[in-house]
Every structure is written in structure tokens, then in C-alpha cells.
Amino acid sequence: MHPAVARGKSLADSQPEKLMPNLPIIIGPSTVLAYHLIWTAYGWWLPNDPRGSMSRFIACDVLKELGELHFGRKRIQPASRVIRGFYEEAKQVLKFPLLTFTSEEIVAIANAFGSAIRQHGYTCYACAIMPDHVHIPIRKQRHAAEQMIANLQDASRVPVLDVGVHPNGHPVWGGPGWKVFLHSPEDIRRTTKYIEDNPIKARMPRQVWDFVVPYDGWSFGGRK
Questions:
Q1: Distance between CA 111 and CA 133 in Å, rounded?
Q2: Rounded to whole angstroms, what are the CA distances from 204 to 103, 109, 131, 159, 209?
Q3: What's the pLDDT tens digit per position in 74-117?
Q4: 203 alpha-carbon distance from chain centroid
Q5: What tens digit of pLDDT does each residue of 159-200 get?
Q6: Mean pLDDT score across all residues of the chain
Q7: Cα 182 to Cα 70: distance, rounded to the nearest angstrom
Q8: What is the pLDDT of residue 24?
Q9: What was the pLDDT predicted at 89?
Q10: CB of 210 within 8 A of CB of 17?
């Protein structure tokens, strides 16, 4: 494993606003320019994560024993030791080991993302592939946010396992993820900077991918 990846912080050391920034999720007539797409590697950010989650139910009985479900971010956040302890217990009941990406797997994911983004004509403004989760903002187009996530997950699943670190049949992704609506150029710029800084804050090298294009101020009413 690349030493910078090995030192990288996991979701067990993160707070929800760092995984899901406190940006507005608005459903209605408001204009949406882009989506901030977020999802995790297998086993991370479980429905009953002590920090809260966006899940409405826990499908697996053995996971229910780890704690109660809390929809949304808890106002008072637990200490890091509580979160780490939760995932130590989770390791014992998950069907497969928690998946944490190596530097080789991160590169394989990036190459797969690039192919899918070119295939589907997506415009991607940033991308952070962390050891246990992904952030990627994509300009709104014909595909719904959920379809974008599904396409990127489908494209990268086999390449990750082809690296050979994890056995064939091991789940790669932890679920369908989340979307945050970006309504203005300011939203896009703020989110892009946050995503670009994500690896640096986790003591990983800055990530530069050839499928990412700089945000040029595009909006439905023209550039700003």
C-alpha cells in the first residue's frame, strides 16, 4: 500500500459534514447545475453508524445489534474512539472484510471512472478517491444522479478486483450513495475546492485526474 494511503484517514475518523458537507438538499423547482455524488467502499458508513446516516432501515439483523438507527446527522457527534469501536465490532458481523483501497486500486478506479465519464459524456469538475469513499461533482445532464453513481460503480467494480488485493466476489461499493444538489456557481466552486482538498487533509498526495475539467462558471443562464 502506498504510504500516503496507509496514513490516510478513514471514515471512522471523519465527521458527517466532511463526508456529506452541509449543503442544501432541495427538491423542487430550484435550478440544479450539478450534483455532488458521494458513496463509500464496502462496509463503511453503515445504517446505524454512531454519527447518524441517511438510511431509513437496517436490513441485516446482526447489524442491528451494533446500535440504533438515527436518520440524518446527529447534533452531538460521538468521539472518534466510539466510531472506531463501532467499526471494530462491525468487522465481526459483516459478511466480508471492510474494504479499504490501496494506491493501486485508487488508480484503477480513476481509470475506470475516466472511461465511464467519456462514454457517457459527463462533465466532471473534481474527484477525490479516498481509501474508503468517493467524492465527485458532475454537471447536470440527461442522466439522474442515481444513474451516474450506478454507471461509475459498475465501471470500476471489476477493475478494482483485477488488481488482486481482494478476492473475486468481494463487494466493492457500500451502496447507492448520496447526492447533494448544487444550485449556483458558488456552490460548485465551494464544493470543488472541498473535494480537491480532501486528500490533502487526509495526508495523501493531491489527486490529479485527466477526466477532470476546471469549472468555467457555466450555468443555464451563461457563465458567471
A1: 16
A2: 10, 16, 10, 22, 15
A3: 455 555 665 565 555 555 556 778 899 999 999 999 999 999 99
A4: 17
A5: 999 999 999 999 999 888 888 899 999 999 999 999 999 999
A6: 76
A7: 25
A8: 36
A9: 53
A10: no
Q: Are 125 and 138 in contact, with CB atoms under 8 Å apart?
A: yes
Domain 1-42+99-224: what homologous superfamily? Transposase IS200-like (3.30.70.1290)
User: How do the domains of the chain map onto residue ranges?
Assistant: 1-42+99-224, 45-97
Q: Are 8 and 203 spatial neighbours (Cβ–Cβ below 8 Å)?
A: yes
Condensed to tens digits (0 to 9), the pLDDT of residues 176-186 reads: 888 889 999 99
Of the candidates 9, 19, 81, 26, which has an alpha carbon nearest to the alpha carbon of residue 46? 19
- Phi/psi at 16 (5° precision): -55, -35
Q: In what side-by-side order are the strands of the sheet with 34-40?
A: 128-129, 133-139, 34-40, 178-182
d(Cα 35, Cα 53) in Å, to the nearest integer? 19
Q: Which residue has the cell 451516474?
A: 148
d(CA 169, CA 188): 36
The CA radius of gyration of the chain, in Å to the nearest whole number, is: 17
Give one DSSP letter per residue of 110-179, joined into a string.
HHHHHHHHHHHT--B---EE-SSEEEEEEE--SS-HHHHHHHHHHHHHHHHHHTSSS-TT---B-SS-EE
